[in-house]
Structure formats: C-alpha cells, structure tokens
Amino acid sequence: MRKLAALAALLTVPLIACSANTTGTATTGTTSASPGKDSTAVGFIFVGPKDDFGYNQAAYQGSQEVAKAYPNLEVITAENVPEDDNAARVMNSMIAKGAKIIFATSYGHLDAALKVAAEHPDVAVVQQGNLITTAVPKNAGTFFGTVYEPVYLAGIAAGKATKSGKLGYVYAFPITQTIDNINAFELGAQSVNPAAQTFAVSTSSWCDPAKQAEAAANLLKQGVDVITQHQDCTATVIKATEAAGAFTVGYHADASAIAPKGWLTGSQWNWGPLYTDIVKTALGGGFTGSKYNDNFRVGYRTGENPFVQSPYGPLVDAETKAAIEKARDLLKTSSPFAGPVTDQEGKVRIPAGTVPDYTTIEKIDYFVAGVVGTLPKS
User: Fold this and answer.
1) For residues 159 and 153, what is the distance between their CA atoms, to the nearest angstrom?
2) What's the rounded mean pLDDT across residues 16-32?
3) Which regions of the chain does DSSP assign to beta strands (E)?
4) For residue 59, which of 46, 69, 68, 70 has the smallest C-alpha distance?
5) Residue 198: which of 338, 337, 368 has the closest Cα?
C-alpha cells in the first residue's frame, strides 16, 4: 500500500460542546459552522458547491459524517474556495475560529495547505488527492482512494452497453487522477469489448456547464453512445447524455435520479469513514506512527476503500453484473493496470506479469492504446 506524505507529531485535541448551526462568510467562499464554547474545531474547504451532484457534494457529505460521529466537535465548512491564495485565507480564518484539523479537499488546494501547515505547526492539515514527493511540514499530509479501480469496473459496463464502440470521457485537467481514470475506464471496456475506444475531451475547468454541454454535444455528434466524466459538477453532462438517448456512467456521487433511462453505474465517494478516522487519530494525540504519517492510499487491495460502486441502471444485464463482480474480486490482489499495458504509440509501458504499485500508477503520464485524444507535451 502506498502511503502518503508526512503527517507527523501533532496535538492532543480536547472535545468541546457546540450549539445550533450558524452561517457566515469567510475571506473567499461561503462558510458555515456550529459555534462552540471553546476553541477546538475541524475545518473543511471545498472548491465548489456542496450540492453539485459530484466531488464537492461527496466531500461535504463526508464532513457531515464527522459531525455525526463527533456531535460535540465544531465542524466548519467553506464552499466555492478557489485553488489559489484565497484557500490559505479561508483556512486561516477557520484556524482563527479554533480549527485544529483542516481538510483541504481539492487537488489544487495543495500549495495553500502546505503554506498553512508551515505557519501553524499545532494544526493538522490534510490535503485530498495529491502525492507529495518533497519535504513538507510534519503536520501536513495527503490521502486519497484508488478510485480508478471502480472506474475500471464502470468501464466494463460501458464496454458491454455500447453499440457504436465509441465511449466519451469529459475531463477537466490532465493531472494524474484524470489520466489514471481515463485509462482505467478504457482498459475496463477493452476487457469485454476489445474494439472499444474512449474519446477524451478536456474542458480545462472543474465545473463549467457551458464547456461541459459543448463537450458532450461534440462527443455525441461523433457517434459516442456512452459518456462518463471527471468533473466536479456532473449534472450538465449527465442530463445532456440522457436527453440524447445515450448511456451515462457516473462519477463522484450517485446521480442515477437524473438519468433514469440511460444510467449504467458509476463510482462514488464514501469519505465519511476515512475522514472520521483521520479526526480520531488527531483527537487521540497525534499522527506520529499512524498510517497517516506517510503517503496514504486505500482501495480494493487494502480493504479500506473510501468509495463505492453506484447502483446499476435498469439496462445493465446479469451477464454484465457477473463480469463486474468477477473483476472486482480480481482487483483485491491485482490492478486495472496489470501488465501488459501499451500506450497510444504502441510502446509497452507496464510489462506482462507486472502489477504496479500505487505510486507507479499515480505517475502515469500517457494515454493507453484505445484512448483517442492527446495530452499536452511537458
């Protein structure tokens, strides 16, 4: 198991009582909190709104699981926090309100999170999604789940459902998470439909409905009949796909309600248990020697996966479900990227018989054979 960057030697945090929720405004972003009688709290920042049918909704739901698990602990949340210096200002405002544990939940919040951690050595600052390879403050770290595993399973559903052999993938930026997911989706589809191709289109935004609608329309014009995505807000692409009579594979959250006919399945986050365990670790006296003291990843191979596969739609048949169940069992000891894996140019990147570790997978910077699209040259 790959474990993440140093999240060491911290605090013993006392629990406190708190009363009913109130709302307020942070430096940037909308913040809500339960006012406590003392100065201990846990803060969560989200890059988008908490009701986006996607990434931020899943993270917000996880924060509320922490509130349920620790009803006497003040939980502060901030929505629409940009991935720039404003994120540091929002986190600092939470610390001023007593936060001793901060969750920075977006990929682009890393630099701000590390800056805040360096300025506040008594505060645990955990960032969601990055792999840190350089020295960082001992009170900082990152975590994530190997979500490309259920994305691979969803690719099986897509490969079985497509009639055209053309799958679509609307993604934001060519970061390791999106590259891994696109590749895993195509590899899953290939495992049951070797001729399947995945057409990848970037919007260069985590949530821009206009760009999402344009990307979906262009994919549909090309004959794509199954569309999935790696966007923070997912409703626009799903609604456009459903309106066109095509199939949808979801991501981040269960959005089957807005695609009652074309929904196949999806990958959704279940952050509550992991968030709660991180808080428990901090409240217990610190992170030294804990599993969060290094590069931390969880998935099917670790048995601690912070995600679930979304419910099946009405058109997913028994044969497809059986294929997915069989593949899920294999992923407990293997990987979507078990070799041989070949890139778009035909070069073998992962040899036959090799099961790459989590760190290797997060450094993938190429599209696999079968993906149609290009990545920017570094």
Assistant:
1) 10
2) 35
3) 22-25, 30-33, 41-45, 74-79, 99-104, 124-128, 140-145, 166-171, 197-202, 226-230, 247-252, 263-269, 296-298, 307-309, 341-342, 348-350, 371-372
4) 46
5) 368
Q: Which DSSP letter does residue 3 get?
A: B
Mean pLDDT of 195-218: 97
pLDDT per position as a tens digit, 86-98: 999 999 999 999 9
Which one-letter amino acid corresponds to residue 234?
T
Q: Which of 231, 224, 215, 218 is nearest to 175 (CA)?
A: 231
CATH architecture designation of domain 22-145+270-298: 3-Layer(aba) Sandwich (3.40)
Closest CA to 1 of 231, 233, 305: 305
Percent of the chain past pLDDT 70, that is, above it, reads 87
Tokens found for residue 208: 């821009």
∠ CA 99-23-280 to the nearest 5 degrees? 30
Cα separation of 362 and 180, whole Å?
7
Query: How does residue 134 score in pLDDT terms, banded at 50, 70 and 90?
Result: confident
In which residue ranges of the chain is CATH 3.40.50.2300 found?
Answer: 22-145+270-298, 148-268+308-372
Whether residue 222 contacts residue 166, with contact meaning beta carbons closer than 8 Å, is answered with yes
Answer yes or no: are the C-beta atoms of 97 and 33 closer than 8 Å: yes
Fold adopted by 148-268+308-372: Rossmann fold (3.40.50)
Rounded (10°) angle between helices 272-283 and 55-69? 50
pTM for the model: 0.82
Integer angstrom CA distances of residue 216 from 8, 95, 268, 328? 44, 41, 21, 29
Residue 371 sits at φ, ψ, to 5 deg, of -85, 130
The burial of 209, by beta-carbon neighbours within 10 Å (0-12 exposed, 13-18 middle, 19 or more buried), is given as: middle
Q: How confident is the model at residue 26 (pLDDT cuts 50, 70, 90)?
A: very low
For the chain, the C-alpha Rg in angstroms (whole number) is 21
The residue with tokens 């589809």 is: 189
Opening angle at CA 89, ends 102 and 113, nearest 5: 40
